[in-house]
Amino acid sequence: MTCREAIEFLMEYLDGELPAEVRAEFDRHLAVCTSCVAYLETYRATVQLEKAAFCEGETAVPPLPEELVQAILAARTCEK
Ligand SMILES: [Zn+2]
After folding, report:
1. Which of 15, 16, 38, 75 is most buried, by CB atoms within 10 Å?
2. Ligand 1 centre from 56 Cα, in Å?
3. Angstrom distance (rounded) from CA 18 to CA 11
């Protein structure tokens, strides 16, 4: 699986909608690709921030630094 494929499966992975076979491949890729792991964590954090934004009265979570997002996107060049 390439990084590009992994990113495409990301949303379904987080929703738990991936077929077992694809999920296993996805997990194998994550085990060897730190940039995709970082991307996954960033993505997950962003989703949580978006959810939190809809919850009035919740403690505001500091926004993800734009520099970090750009750094991760820039590092996402491996093709495994
Ligand atoms: Zn990757």
Report:
1. 38
2. 36
3. 9
Q: What is the mean pLDDT of each run of 10 residues along the chain (80 residues)?
A: 92 90 95 94 85 65 77 73
Using alpha carbons, select from 33, 13, 43 the residue that is nearest to residue 78. 33
For residue 16, the CA-to-ligand 1 centroid distance in Å is 19
Whole-number Å distance, alpha carbon 23 to ligand 1 midpoint, is: 14
Domain count, the chain: 1
Beta carbons within 10 angstroms of residue 76's beta carbon? 16
Q: What is the pLDDT of residue 79?
A: 57
Name the residue range of residue 12's domain: 3-75
pLDDT of the residue at 58: 58
pTM reported for the whole predicted model: 0.60
Task: Give the residue from 62, 64, 10 showing the smallest Cα distance to 35.
Answer: 10
Dist. CA 37 → ligand 1 center (Å): 8
